[in-house]
Amino acid sequence: MEVHGGSKDEKLIDFSISVNPYTPRWKDDLFKRCEKIANRYLYTEWLEDEFRKKFGQNTVILAGATEAFQIAGLSVMNGANVIIPSPSYGEYERVASYGAKNVMKIPPKGGIDIDTEMAFALADRKVKDGRTVLILGNPNNPTGKYLNFKEEITTLGNDGVTIILDEAFVDFVDEKKIWHIDHPNVITVRSFTKSYGMPGIRVGYVKNDEFKRHFEKYRSPWAIGSCGYAFVEFLIEDDGTFLKESVGKIRSEAKRFENFGLLTDANFGSLKVKNASEIQQKLDGSGIHVRSCESFGLKDRIRLSIRTPEENDHLFEALEKVIG
Predict the structure, then answer these.
(1) Of the CATH numbers 3.90.1150.10, 2.60.40.3760, 3.40.50.800, 3.30.750.210, which one belongs to the domain with range 13-22+241-323?
(2) Exposure of 227 by Cβ count < 10 A (0-12 exposed, 13-18 middle, 19+ buried)?
């Protein structure tokens, strides 16, 4: 099993998971509702009409971005040429391996940044040989960089390439930078529970007209469970205040991380070190857990999330001792 961050030791301050350190004011009411309905079978379809009024008629609720990629790996990518720029979320390659004709990873540009130019050029060539799927995370994981390639993927979509656009962390990006696309060959994947500080509740969605029925057909029944169901109920009524306020705090704290050379558009980023695994172990000894980026192919980087000012103070103090 590949671990995507997180620690079994609950005493550590966990900077390895890219999650909002704040939670909404309705969290306690959410769990009361979760307990109340835990003795029932709950169907996502019962909530979907109201959900779509807020998030779009071409959306499908799923058990987080993970279920979206599971379904895409077994169907959308099956028999296709799949192109994945590196570094990127490990699930892309894992689910592509289920049945893709070819899985092509594009090496990083400058050692850390995804090479979108090379990925777009390869996708344009491979689509002539058959179905082609390009997977892009924006903001990218683990760098936290948010890019504007709307024009390029629109062109690829028009040429027949299917693009899976993973926007799991886009809620943390400055809204002035965010762009949107609505194209029949672009499947947008979104996640909620990272943004609301409750990743243990699995809720997300995909957005696409052409593939809408496809994801409805293959999603698991009851997958979001009682807490996920309750979360969607509260989300539909949410007025957006929590995200606006908490993301503002995170963006403010992100400026402090720049002193260590970590630049990000999201709520996490990568920091260059001499030996990622060694630094991770030393920080664990200081009560701080970070993510080694070795699984991304980056042995000289760790991934850090942005947490509360007090927790960030502990992190900076530990980093000063460990890496200077």
Answers:
(1) 3.90.1150.10
(2) buried
